[in-house]
Specification:
By secondary structure, the chain is of the alpha+beta class. It is built from four helices and eight strands. An eight-stranded mixed sheet has the order 1-2-3-4-5-6-8-7. The longest helix has 15 residues. The radius of gyration is 16 Å and the shape is globular. It starts with 8 loop residues before the first strand and ends in a 5-residue tail after the last strand. The N terminus is likely disordered.
Length: 181
C-alpha cells in the first residue's frame, strides 16, 4: 500500500479536512453500512476482505483529528467515505469509491479523486481507469467534470437484479495523469 496517501489531507470547503487512513478489517462494518445503502448491488464483506488480502490500496476517509467534534459528523470515528484502488504496472484501477449518502454533494468525491490522481502521479502511473454504471448519473457527471473520457463498454458487467438475472453495462472511463519528472 502506498504510505503517502494517508498523509494527504484534502480540504473540503466548509466541511473539514479529509484524512485517508489505510482500511483494516476492523473498518469493514462501517464500510458495509455505507456500501449497503449506496449501491444497487453492493460489495460484500468478502469482496472487501479479498481486496485487503490481495494488497489493493484501500482507504477510509474521515475528518481530520484537528476538526474533531465527538458525536457529530466531525467525529474521526465516523466514516465519511472509502476507496479501493488496484495498482497495475502502468495504470491505477479505481475499483470502488463511495461517499456516505448523508455527506454527498459537499465536494468530498472531488477531493478524493484529486488525491487519488496525486498518488497516481507520485507512483508514476500515467493513467487511471474505472467502470461506472450508465444509470449512476451523479458519478458519471463527476468523472466527466474531472476530465475522464469513455474508452470502452463492458456489456452486462453489473448485476441489477439477482432474481431476474438482469444486468447493466459498464462504461469504462480513463484519464491520463501528468507525471512529474
Amino acid at each position: 500500500m502506498v504510505d503517502n496517501i494517508h498523509s494527504l489531507h484534502a480540504s473540503t470547503e466548509g466541511v473539514s479536512e479529509l484524512s485517508f487512513l489505510p482500511m483494516t478489517v476492523a473498518d469493514l462494518d462501517s464500510v458495509l453500512a455505507i456500501e449497503s445503502v449506496s449501491h444497487v448491488h453492493p460489495w460484500t464483506k468478502g469482496n472487501f476482505s479479498d481486496s485487503l488480502a490481495a494488497g489493493h490500496w484501500a482507504y477510509c476517509v474521515r475528518p481530520q483529528l484537528a476538526d474533531a467534534v465527538k458525536g457529530s459528523y466531525l467525529d474521526p470515528e465516523v466514516l465519511w467515505a472509502y476507496c479501493i484502488l488496484f495498482p497495475a504496472v502502468d495504470e491505477l484501477h479505481l475499483l470502488n469509491i463511495t461517499v456516505s449518502p448523508k455527506l454527498r454533494r459537499l465536494g468530498i468525491g472531488i477531493k478524493m479523486m484529486n488525491a487519488i490522481e496525486g498518488v497516481a502521479a507520485q507512483q508514476k502511473m500515467p493513467r487511471i481507469i474505472l467502470e461506472v454504471r450508465p444509470s449512476n448519473e451523479a458519478a458519471l457527471k463527476l468523472y466527466q467534470s474531472l476530465g475522464y473520457e469513455q474508452i470502452g463498454l463492458r456489456k452486462n458487467y453489473y448485476p441489477v437484479d439477482a432474481a431476474s438475472g438482469l444486468r447493466e453495462d459498464a462504461l469504462v472511463l480513463a484519464k491520463s495523469i501528468k507525471l512529474v519528472a
